[in-house]
Amino acid sequence: MLKKINKLQLLFLMCIGFVATAQQHEVKDYINDINERAATIVSKLDINDADKKEVKTIVLKQYINIEKIEFKRDSQLEKLKKTVTDQEEQKLKSEEVWVKYKASISKLHDSYLDKLSKKLNELQIVQVKDAMTYHVMPKTYHNFLDMFQNLKDVQKKMIYDHLVEARENAMNVGTHKWQFQWFAKYRGKINNILASQGIELHHTSKAWEKKQLEKKNHLK
């Protein structure tokens, strides 16, 4: 199964004919997917074609490296489940795996941004970050301001800063699901802070959601 075999390993095995047809299709779909995502990300950048090609390669390699680091983490955690029977020992060793994973992904993140900075300006790097994370950060920020229209500047900054941090974390995971979970985690933090400052959340958010649904139905 793909979860148990590195996609890069599958690509190699596919070339020498040792992988089943279904797995061949799966790894081809994966490579095509990250190629398309990288191409889409750079297509919107106002840079020349040569730089677009280089930036696309940087983005593509980032996706591959994220996959490699996640695969290593998951393989180590799976091995611990099978080989370490003591629950406390398994927990401690699992925590060690996660610490090493976070260190590796943080190093990769910094290296990635450093490479982008050699080709792009700050605004263009933000464009790449938003494109990698499906523009959830600016959309969510807009929704917060639209939902709570009497926020103070310091509260707006708090929301913005939290969502920027969410985006930095979401860039480091390989699936939509985990990206969205990072944003969900930070939305929860924002809601808790707003609630602690006396902002009414429940009825305001329900009224806003009803308003958005009405707008959507009106456009149909």
Automatic annotation (TrEMBL):
Pfam families per record: DUF3826
UniProt signal peptide: 1-22
**What are the UniProt keywords, alphabetically?**
Signal
Q: What is this protein called?
A: DUF3826 domain-containing protein
What's the source species for this entry?
Flavobacterium commune
- Kindly list the organism's lineage: Bacteria, Pseudomonadati, Bacteroidota, Flavobacteriia, Flavobacteriales
